[in-house]
């Protein structure tokens, strides 16, 4: 057995040596009960009975503490072993090693009957004296505040979504004009819940709770409507009333509530969002956590268990877009040095900026070199709450002016989804999280005054840069996107075309089977085409471009 275990133990010992993670646990909310998590150097051992017996057998120095406090262990990360193995394989493919995923196997939660915070703090201190322990973390068991058309007829509020437009907005309209509305991309949101009965997504099949997830009946509208607002910004129906989501054609938008009927458990919600994701998916962290004080709000990844989860997810190709928090904290300050020393988790951290061409830091946004990009932190028209509009006194027809890093994060997430869709349509693979982050930062609109919250995404500049990177930008080429692909009865072609533009579909042997004028209509009927691969050729003036499409009948 020693021959098998030694390489693993040596690997994780190097990780533990280079990143001292001890001495960082604290009470997230002094007046709340907490769960105690302990992260060991992970290694594979033969079972010695119960999980607690196995860990005591593996780490004999635990024995006296376990006898003194009478605690037991349970698995800390709710991701099954098969999924972890798949993530490890992806991490090796994308990053060259799976160490960030492997550490999740060594995180456990301690169960100790009737333990108060004083006892948990004392136990955490003693546990961290053990050489086998990487760190301890205390996680609040009580909620932490979020960072914040049916008859009668609802007006069309789309003109009020000015964050869609060019500077001072992110120019999402440019992406939509190319058909980049989220097609084929899966989105997850971790926070408190949503009102699925809202008129904007009651009939949208893609918008659902995550598998086996519930929303606590104790979660008031003040909490649930936070998720309703985010869901609307991302996936509100593209209809003739209300608002339109930035990613309204997304393949899935799944909500993973941290406050469920079984209680409040943020680590579980994050774990489940990751377990139900694969490379190319986008997870939104609409959460913040206490930093130097319980109300000095910073990114959720300040919590060590969350940081490990984020790092494992991004290494395996899952993009995480996370709110910086509304605590006006400088993450480069001395207090946050241990957090910064952990390195790059791979997440896109979103700060809050002003909704004008100055793009200054909003007063309350957390900031610093770790914050990557900004989004609008005020004046974001969204679903829920009812402060902006309530049609017919109906809770399901409420609209709001959303704000904070809460509104900034979905605005940036919509940009991420559109870029991921475009990249996949052009290459058949997905951008890595760090590559998307770099693209947004390099092509964004520069920040104005205040501590660093990063540039505002600029979709036209980002797409243009991506086209150049992929070798697609040329005066002799047509820029367009195709969906769905595979196609069934019709092919939709999105781009900017002249009245004389035409589409031709050829078999792989060169036989033309369909010719159609594009002009004002961008849909090509493909009746009778046999299943298989075809070439779609678009001619627009002197520019000609071809793409492969798949037909399934």
From TrEMBL:
Record has Signal as a keyword: yes
Domain Peptidase S8/S53: 222-444
Keyword Protease listed: yes
InterPro entries recorded: Peptidase_S8/S53_dom, Peptidase_S8/S53_dom_sf, Peptidase_S8_Ser-AS, Peptidase_S8_subtilisin-like, Peptidase_S8_subtilisin-rel, Secre_tail
Keywords per UniProt: Hydrolase, Protease, Serine protease, Signal
UniProt xrefs under Pfam families: Peptidase_S8, Por_Secre_tail
GO MF annotation list: serine-type endopeptidase activity
GO biological process, one term: proteolysis
NCBIfam families on file: Por_Secre_tail
Family: Belongs to the peptidase S8 family.
Record protein name field: S8 family serine peptidase
Species annotation: Flavobacterium silvaticum
Lineage: Bacteria, Pseudomonadati, Bacteroidota, Flavobacteriia, Flavobacteriales
